[in-house]
């Protein structure tokens, strides 16, 4: 713990700024202290695709560190964000010397794999209302996102980015889910009222 506290450092990234860029060497493990970031890529034509949003209390980038490869995606701040950066050398030292850290990392990778499998399923099989429901439900993973509370501080535009839709269409989906009693649109975010209901929501329930 003393070495981690000595080696980790903090940076500030303004809204719209890059936390890290595609093609850069991966030299640290990144945790979100406050704010929100998104992982995304751009096609040759300039079309953006968002993979996931990363809320406070979460870490990412361990896969690229383990494989010692350049970063394959951009990470941008959805709002003003503070991030912690643990140098790669300290990350690998922990991996070699700390069984609890190794166990944590194994669970992190397993949960991340499940998350991405779910995303592929959602994208290919589900309608947009259901994708928005699953997008919100996926934020409540106690291992990947330990800091998330019932009030998810995401705007409708941000929900659109994470679910692959426009802000207007995401708003329509959120209104459907609100009428179902699964969530409430509050000032400053979205309050989840029925997490299991969001996880079970199916396209046939859409109105």
From TrEMBL:
Keywords on record: DNA-binding, Transcription, Transcription regulation
Residue ranges of every copy of the Cyclic nucleotide-binding domain listed in the record: 1-112
Domain HTH crp-type: 126-196
Pfam families assigned to the protein according to its UniProt record, in alphabetical order: cNMP_binding (PF00027), HTH_Crp_2 (PF13545)
PANTHER family: CRP FAMILY TRANSCRIPTIONAL REGULATORY PROTEIN, DNA-BINDING TRANSCRIPTIONAL DUAL REGULATOR CRP
Protein known as: Crp/Fnr family transcriptional regulator
Organism: Janthinobacterium kumbetense
Lineage, opening ranks: Bacteria, Pseudomonadati, Pseudomonadota, Betaproteobacteria, Burkholderiales
